[in-house]
Amino acid sequence: GAGVSQSPSNKVTEKGKDVELRCDPISGHTALYWYRQSLGQGLEFLIYFQGNSAPDKSGLPSDRFSAERTGGSVSTLTIQRTQQEDSAVYLCASSLSGYGYTFGSGTRLTVV
Amino acid sequence: QQPVQSPQAVILREGEDAVINCSSSKALYSVHWYRQKHGEAPVFLMILLKGGEQKGHEKISASFNEKKQQSSLYLTASQLSYSGTYFCGTVTGGGNKLTFGTGTQLKVEL
What we know:
By secondary structure, chain A is mainly beta.
């Protein structure tokens, strides 16, 4: 597609439930990134996929968070046993190496 | 380590100029600049690479001082549409992973 697509755009879940967030990057972009942004805050790095290399998971806040990227394209971020502090906007971005990021519109996650 | 931006916030009258600074404690490979409007995703403005190459929008200018590990974004003849939060992002190692700065809120008024 023309841009980075994320789904769902909004997700309300109960504390303790698992959620899956999806990102469909721009076709041909080799790099894919996940960030999260709490209300009024900056962008916190979560994970980075570059081509066929092992992902950089250094930003994942706990082992409840995981992500995969299938076939070098679509990525899924999974949060298990959600907590209230997981509430945030989860942003996905893709890029070519050495170029700027194109962000998706994000998934607003609310844990109640 | 998160890069530090200054100022934290600035209010301009339309037509005025502004400079936003980004400072890192680590050696930089590249610096990106993004603008985020309320409720929207960040939008890429410019990338500055080690060695002097720049890629971005023609109406945006920025500088990259590799020795001082700093970058500055120059907004001239500001328009109402320039309002938003500006983030720098720095790459300090291999690859293209960005660590975003603390953000600068810019408001342009009539």
